[in-house]
Amino acid sequence: MNVWNTIPFVRLLIAFLSGLLLAVNYSSLPQVPFYYFVVPFVLYYFSHKYFTNNYQYRFVIGFPIVLFFFLFGIKLVQVNTEIYYPNHFSKLIENNYVIRVNEPPVSKNSSLKFIGEVVQVQKGNDWVATKGKILIYLAKDSRALKIQYGDILLCNATTYETPAPKNPFEFDYKEYLAFHQIYHQSYINSTAWVSTNLNDANPILKLAYNTRNYFLKTISEHHISGDELAIGSALILGYEDELSNEVVSAFAATGALHVLSVSGLHVGIIFIVFNFLLKFMGESKTAKIIRFILLLAILWLYAILTGLSPSVWRASAMFSLITIGKFFKKETNTFNIIGCSAFILLCIKPFMITEVGFQLSYLAVIGIIALYKYFYELFVFKNWLADNFWSITCVSIAAQLATFPLGLLYFHQFPNYFLFSNLVIIPLSTIILYGGVLLLVIAKIPIIGVVTAKILYFLLWTLKSTVELFEKLPFAVVEGVAITTFQTFLIYGLIIGIICLWQLKKSVFLKSSLVLSVLLSSLFIINQWQLNQQHKIVIYAINNSSAIDIIKGSDNVLLADSALLSNSDKIRFHLIPNWNNNGLRKVQKYVDTVTTIANTSFVKKQNHYLFCNNLTVLCTQADIKMFSDLKYKPDIVILNKRNKKRFRSLFYIFPEAEFICDGTISENFLASLIKQNPQLKLRGVNKEGAISINI
Hints:
This protein is of the alpha+beta class and 695 residues long.
């Protein structure tokens, strides 16, 4: 039997996904008019009329259907792109807005952050109904802390477009927000808003958020705090706002990041356990109906308990559709059901396809369903414990095999000990999940609730310690791996080819795997050769900071201010993506003072000067006390606010040099310098982003 005949929805889904991805990645794509959808129907009519009885041309009949789903994918994205709406608030350049709080605010150091919906804009003396989401940072005070989901606020605000990333390969927060239909943001001080004392919350979401907040308070009141509270809140309730970057990095490095996000794993555990527990009801028709209803109810009650986070309702929807499919048609192909669930979810929220969690969760499920049994059947263990360990190992291998190419693409790392870590972490996180749910149920019972909380705290501490232990092992993670989207597809093609060769033993899969291997190896070799030839200097755009990278092959020297070098979050966000994508393996960091000595085969630092090949760079990050110290004529002068009073003298002494303002010089000050010195070559990283100069 042709495998494609058993999964017709998957075939249509491929066309649908192609249309979605095309429209998502090319926002300038012309609008698809609705009358275009007449074309597939006309083509289907004629192809069905003339080719029905000719099996050789059966693909001609299928083409109009594929075309319809392809166009449908494109149109769905365009219809759901809110910036195209004629009543989007950005079409009106005003300052007074009525904003509905769309989610529970998150408390930051000095502000409250939340997504708002602009429902009205004042135009003259009238209020105009609008649509459109906006990212709000509200000055934090006692009034702001009382804001809840659904509150209606009257704000006087200046909105601006989310800035694009300014450093190479930096996370594109602008694109990320745009995929969530957020194109603007605003900071509102405490005197520029008032509450209308109205609330327009969705009752289901409000119930979900309130339930989650109540349970978060319940856990914290039982003396679970610190990283243990953050891990428990994420694992049990899907609340990730308290997780530190160190904890997230540790879990990522051990291949256990999935346990910190309530998603397919957690919902799957709930589904499997309750499906097993409800088996006692028997196999009668009535029992099956009751069990079916109870399973759906339990899935969505748990989703509400976790605050209906995107990953949870996505996983709940997927398992619900699998349950419904199995209930109404026992022999339905599971891949068909998964394809159907993905189609329904993407019809509701087409931009969900851009979410890494969506991609990883579906690939993990597909990998487990497709590969688990083949791995499990390789060895047979009569011992119960050994059999369960082998079963968990097979699940880990199948899921990792299906997701690791995306992990390399997005996270540039591979956890070497994922098999061993998951043998401990998956069972432990499962016990914590049940223990956490149990605590939420019996928390108010004296003594029993306290004892359960202490056991849960110990389990959370054990989980954290286990992750830290694996993270500290030698060669725990391969970092700095950079691959392109095309290479990612090639890797998936190679994986599929090898698996098909393993199972079907056909020479065509051997040949295709060899071709893909050669192509992939060639691309890696070419890319590595190009990286080995690189020699450049990069001045980064980091607000109020100075950072200069001198890169040669796979080595680099970083000169930065002490505040930046001590800020691991800024380094991780602004610098490491460029290091990963440039294949840098050896990073030497120095504070950019005049006394710093840096002398390598490709860069020499002497006082205020950097000598890189034939390029001479004058750095002004340290105080220039005497101009007589500036003995060499520079090609480039990097300006820093520390020597702002000496800029005029530098312009006079080195008029032919190229002057580049680092991250400490604002755009406005750069503009004034350009206006006062039109004869000079003046640039600034805060204006145009990081500046890279080949040496």
